[in-house]
Amino acid sequence: MTQFPSDKTSIADLSIPLERDVFFRTLIRELSGTLQEVVGLEKPPDLLALLVKQWVSR
């Protein structure tokens, strides 16, 4: 049976097999691949430009 951490377990104490850098690189790679599949090869630059513009304006 799977054991879940107690409510008092700190995230810093959890055993996570990925380093932060590797995790974010993997996440970005997966998201970019999904974006290509969903909107095609031509539109991702436009969509990313829009997202960056919205992020910068916050």
Characterise the protein shown here.
By secondary structure, the protein is mostly helical. It has a domain at 20-56. Helix content is 57%, strand content 0%. It is built from 2 helices and no strands. The protein has helices at residues 20-39, 44-56. The radius of gyration is 17 Å and the shape is elongated. The relative contact order is 0.07.
Topology:
Layout: H1 20-39, H2 44-56
Q: Any descriptors?
A:
58 residues; mainly alpha; 2 helices; elongated
What does the radius of gyration come to?
A: 17 Å
Number of DSSP helical runs: 2
Biggest sheet: strands, sense, closure? none
Helix content: 55-70%
Brief overview:
With 58 residues, the protein is mostly helical. Helix content is 57%, strand content 0%.
